[in-house]
Design brief:
Helix content is 45%, strand content 11%. By secondary structure, the protein is α/β, with parallel strands linked by helices. The strands form four sheets. The protein has a seven-stranded parallel sheet with strand order 13-14-12-15-16-11-17, covered by helices on one side. It has a six-stranded parallel sheet with strand order 3-2-6-7-1-8, sandwiched between helices. Helix 3 links the parallel strand 2 and strand 3.
Amino acid sequence: MLEGLDPEQREVATALHGPVCVLAGAGTGKTRAITHRIAYGVRAGILPPASVLAVTFTNRAAGEMRGRLRQLGAGGVQARTFHSAALRQLQYFWPKAVGGELPRLLERKIQLVAESAARCRVRLDRNELRDVTGEIEWAKVTQTVPADYPAAVAKSHRDAPRDTAEISQIYGAYEQLKRDRSMIDFEDVLLLTVGVLQDRHDIADQVRRQYQHFVVDEYQDVSPLQQRLLELWLGDRDSLCVVGDASQTIYSFTGATPDHLLNFRTRHPDATVVKLVRDYRSTPQVVHLANGLLDQARGRAAEHRLELISQRDPGPEPVYSEYADEPAEAEGTARRIRELIEAGVPAGEIAVLYRVNAQSEVYEQALADAGVPYQLRGAERFFERQEVREAGVALRGAARAGSNDSLLDDAEDLPAQVRAVLSAKGWTAEPPAGSGAVRDRWESLAALVRLAEDFARARPEASLADLVAELDERAAAQHAPTVQGVTLASLHSAKGLEWDAVFLVGLTEGMMPITYAKTDEQVEEERRLMYVGVTRARLHLSLSWALSRSPGGRASRRPTRFLNGLRPGSTAFGARSAGGAGGVERGSGGRRKRRGPVLCRVCGKTLTDAGEMKLMRCEDCPSDMDEALYERLREWRSDQARELGQPAYCVFTDKTLMAIAEATPGSEGELAAISGVGGRKLERFGADVLAICAGQDVGGGDGEG
């Protein structure tokens, strides 16, 4: 059980008594250390599996921990999120503590917040609604009631999105609506569990008899409410192991605070403290930049920073790229990603990370134009897709039927059984041509096939029934299998993940740090957010920024201050390097020709949206598109995609086809001027497109890639 652990990880694994605090830097194998600790304790007879509760912050992390514990022979250990563990206890004890059935759980509170605002005669647009919902969540995890909200905001120096009295009123109305409809939200789950354990000592004693040993991952992210729940679970015992890194505290807006981690030795003077600093994830070049970011940090968390030491062979230096505008940055990023894929890096091992979700659109467009598949992190939940639900029903039926199911007659192993069952639901060995619903359905089923293959490798003796149980467990935890494609994600949602290649984009002042980060503490959290982004990369790391938002705009932006003194040619005092000298790579491989502003050819307005710039008109301005030409282009595109074995958008996106049908180009020069038609696509498809625009018949593609 201890083989393969480094000296510090072994210290963690063998520290089975008393309070233990593990300070674990990014990529240092903390999950490995704590799962081996639990499994070693189970094997040694010190930690009975049913008495251990391992708590983390995301369903994905809890699912990964359960899988590792199962492989290590500690499958009886409970690994859950705070909310999941609390909800189970609340459901079990509610009839005894309160009586009747537990109120219905409100899955998404935003609609109820909208209704509450309407009752208060307050109009909120979609963004304001999201912000107010976030404020209500913050108030609840900091145990702030509606009447105390304005004072709590003032005390914490928090920037409220609206007048605090107004938010307090909406918050109060929201709580009343929930009571009227006998509903609770996710924060109530924690609040009510805390209330039951505080008021009913008999129930608290019963929980403590069940769980006697606790492990808390990502301890730097606990809120005051979660800390209170943990204290009630513990009682007067000290069998607690916490794991965290103050330099990765990035969720203070949700009420998370590193204070509980930083004060652990004060609360537990006899605690064992182990520091994990050997970084097994990233190359020395990536680690050097990560350490450099924290060297400039200030504040209490920075005083406890960990100096990482890479354990990997040297790799390429981080690439710094400056672009004239955002579309150029997106195009350059897509081009570099395409090069990495052609060099053998799987698309699923590449990520584009940005500060806010609104930045994703231009990268979606650029990747589609470059023929690169991608997935948006945070899109529709995997297990809620219709085809996944149908597949689950089919697999469950086959597992019950066993050898009586004729579909399984020729299936020799578990993956073959899954492929046989899902083939009846639309899965094929080769993906369908084109994109759209058919391709999306296939991708979902293919993800289940890959999951079955991984599951069989981890558990060679597993049956179809075992896989169905694994799927049920994953569905309950929303622990989705991976889908092939470049990941587009915000920096916050990338926490806990890693890729071979990471592109950090939009790194300008005002975006990193974000404009509304005004206090020193807020700016330092933005620095930590960038540190989290850097440490997601194993091998390739690219950092880029654009000098203006749209083509032809004034080049008034500056690269983020966090790179001062770190990127070539910059100084630690914020002076900008002149003209991209000093080794800063220009995005287009040289000085970019300045383009004028893109104007709508109908109304003359300056365009900034990537899709509108492609069409050369505002979305709602009248179109003079030749509908018949557009349909011919679509039919031709389908034929090409089928022959190339790629999604249709890899040939041309719908917006590009619309732009072609509107412009009706008569020469290569006119076609090349349309956004989305680069040199590569002009060479491959230009003759066909021009022929179609001229009204000529064009046969299928030549099949050459």
